[in-house]
Write a structure and sequence with these properties.
The protein is α+β, with helices and mostly antiparallel strands. It has two helices and seven strands. The N and C termini lie far apart (88 Å).
Length: 163
């Protein structure tokens, strides 16, 4: 047994240096830019009280090296509450300084939808809806958030007319 522990003592520093070199090579990378390109109902029906949707993610890689992935995970939140989650075991790659569309099926629980509506009913009327999306594409994490207004935009004044 002493020979094994001696080998591990010699091998451990090499493994630590290799791991640190791997982390250092990832440190200079810019994060992936991920947006929702589309959402459509799936032909596959959900189980009981759930709705199945296909979320199409537009993934932009702002780095010179391509990234490869084996699987995806996405979580959509509305008004700081989980709305839908999904996973896909599909793999692929995004070229350096390129983009790709990745499809991820998600499940929307009817109970979550009811909670969303009930939560909005109890709060003061919202002028804006906050949303957040987070997930992973292989080992690459991403996050995007924002808000959109529920107020209709005022019509633009015609040229030559006084406001």
């Amino acid at each position: 047994m002493p020979a094994v522990s001696g080998a591990w003592r010699r091998l451990a520093p090499v493994l630590v240096l290799a791991a640190l070199a791997g982390c250092a090579s990832l440190a200079g990378q810019d994060p992936l830019q991920v947006t929702v390109a589309g959402i459509e109902p799936m032909a596959e029906k959900g189980e009981g009280l759930e709705l199945r949707l296909l979320v199409k993610l537009r993934v932009q890689n702002p780095n010179p090296a391509p990234i490869t992935y084996d699987g995806a995970y996405v979580k959509l939140e509305v008004q700081d509450r989980t709305f839908a989650t999904g996973v896909s075991d599909v793999g692929g790659s995004v070229p350096g300084f390129g983009e790709a569309v990745v499809e991820v099926p998600v499940a929307v629980s009817m109970l979550r939808m009811v909670r969303q509506v009930m939560g909005m009913k109890d709060d003061a009327p919202a002028d804006t809806i906050r949303y957040a999306m987070s997930g992973k594409l292989g080992y690459h994490r991403f996050r995007a958030d924002g808000e959109f207004s529920l107020r209709p935009e005022a019509p633009a004044a015609e040229p030559g007319t006084a406001p």
